[in-house]
Amino acid sequence: MTAAPTPDPLDGARLAALDEYGILDTPAESGFEDIVLLASQACETPTALVSFVAKDRQWFKARIGFDPCETPLTQSVCAHALGRDGILVIPDLTRDPRTRDNALVTGDPQIRFYAGAPLHTQDGFALGTLCVIDSVPRPEGLTARQTATLTALARQVMVQLELRRAIENREQALAARARAEEQLRLAVEATGIGIFDFDLATGELRWDARVRALFGVPARGPITYAETYLGGVHPDDRERADAAVRAAMDADGVGVFDTDYRVIAADTGVERWLAARGRAIVEDGVAVRFIGSVRDITEHKAADLALKATEERYRLAARATTDAIWDWDLVADQVRWNEALTLAHGHDLGAVVPQGAWWLAQIHSEDRDRIARSIHAAIDGTVETWTDEYRFRRGDDSYAAVIDRGYIIRDDAGRAVRMIGAMLDITRRNETERRLRQNQAQLDTVLQTMPVGILLAEAPSGRIVFGNPRLERILGHPTVQAEDRDGYGAYRAYRADGSPVPPGDYPLARITAGEVDHAELEAHYQRPDGSRRWIEIIGEAVKDSNGVTIGAVVAVGDIEDRKRAAQQQDILHHELGHRLKNTLALVQAIATQTLRNVTDLDAAREALSARLVAMGKAHDILLSGESESAGMEAVLRGALSIHDDGGPQRFRLSGPDLAVGPKAALSLALMAHELATNAVKYGALSVPDGSVVLRWEVEGRDRADGSAVIHLLWREQGGPSVLEPTRKGFGTRLIERGLVGAIGGTVRLAYPKSGVTCTVTAPLSGLLES
């Protein structure tokens, strides 16, 4: 039972006022019929009624879209509007406590939206309403324009009632009717609706100014159905529009005209979409009149067509995509999936339970609780979007890694009522990312452990983005993360001539600037500790698939040892040449002196050979070491070795370990050889028990002024009695002048009968000079 309306519809004064109009159970009248048609058009509802609330029923003077001519008072929604000054709007009859149990709501025709303007007499009594009804809820109610139109049309209903009462006074009636028509015209103009009236008996077709403007015909002048109306309809819609009109004029049909079609304005050629509604007036089973309205719906139609196109694109995209798209009705707990659930995940749509529980059950057990909490937190909150990743079971019981995104739709109260989303399979992407991470790790390991320094930079900016640890060890400082090529000045490299390398000359700078694809540079790099090391920089361009340089990589190697070895090689070559020239000069001098005034060639050849062997021994000792000097004892033993016959203690050498320079070594070896040769011929070595003591010592070695001297003593003992020679040969001169001539100092030869002695005093620096 519907709740009792307020105020009481059974009020005696109100019922008496209704009876005074004598309107109940009267035939249909065009004035009222026009009003409900306009109300339906203006408010865009399928149903409009002129309703009068009587003692036991509500009766409809005019109706469109509603079959019964009356309903019991218990089913009256209009009764609730009687006590209002303005329009009563109920957006959803199922939710309003006054109407949710109404039989017209719970049963056929299942009305859902209601808006009614009360019909007030001049004395303030509400006789009924002019109302519009829809079969779907309209949360937005009526627009301001629709509200104003419905109010104006309600006043026109009362004008019609008043006209009926004042029919006896024709002038008054005509004036009232003129006012009503003017108000109706203004109301119609306000709604943008055009009116047509087709007299079927005479064939006369009348259009108001609005219809004429829409069809692009003059404001005055004759119009016809065939030429003006059908001629103005778009060719593609003409046959359909004509069929709709003829169906509405069929006395055996529904008598209603409701269709959309396109017209082409005769004056401008502009194409418009019109919505046309009308009905036929039937008398004695014959349609005698056809009236209705047209409304420009071009913008609405364009929006509708765009929406349909969008929906079609969405439908096609949903079919074409491999994303599993879902649509979840949160109120009914119904989930719909697109075909990708089968194509991408192998689930038969016919076997899928269309509920949220089935979906949740397919989520991996380790992810299920987390996703349930995540999605319900979004639904129960205020956000509009949700995103998460999880594992989704496929039809073959394997699992796909997916990223799921959803959009939440909420009602006016903020409650989530629907959620639409898409589930993207990212299994391959995750595997690709895993491989990329693995490859990156391997690359990082290679770069970090390479035996050369690596530097990477972007092009064209030149910004340095990477330097490996080996580079830091070579340069002696962390990688300078320069933002551009000008920042390369922080690297301090020098050319062979000592000039600094400009920032733009580094291989990295030349390549990122686009000058070259390959560049090399050898430079002397200054480290933070002040030391310098030679480095080699080799760079190559990094290009994209189109051949455009996007970066550069350089390898930096420490070539200090190589450079030093090359320098030492140069020095060695130079020294070898120098020594060879000196040796040849010395050999030439020895040969010249040995062979001068010679009478015995065999003896001279033997002497020359022995002297050259002594020189060779000295050279062997010099070249056997890693330095340019040789040990003094080794030089002396090498020179004396050819004279050592194996006898006990033939040569007794003693003295500090000294490194003799090459010049002194050759002279020292020749001097020792000559002394030993004389000893073999005439001295201590000419007898089995003879021996030679060779001793040397350094005096003043710690002197800061470098004045240290070396004393060398050659003393023969155990030999025959010595006689001082009467003349000096080349050998004696070589002893006296060879070493002293090379390094300075003095040589003193003495010939005591006990054995020859030779004392050498020379500067230590000359002996050691290399």
From TrEMBL:
Its EC number is 2.7.13.3. InterPro entries: GAF, GAF-like_dom_sf, HATPase_C_sf, PAC, PAS, PAS-assoc_C, PAS-like_dom_sf, PAS_fold_3. PROSITE patterns: PAC (PS50113), PAS (PS50112). The keyword Repeat applies. Keywords: ATP-binding, Chromophore, Coiled coil, Flavoprotein, FMN, Kinase, Nucleotide-binding, Phosphoprotein, Photoreceptor protein, Receptor, Repeat, Sensory transduction, Transferase, Virulence. It catalyses: ATP + protein L-histidine = ADP + protein N-phospho-L-histidine. It holds the Pfam family PAS_9. Residues 257-309, 386-438, 519-571 form the PAC domain. Residues 180-252, 310-382 form the PAS domain. Residues 163-190 form a coiled coil. Transmembrane segments: none annotated. It is an enzyme of class 2 (transferase). CDD domains: PAS (cd00130). NCBIfam families: sensory_box. This is Blue-light-activated histidine kinase.
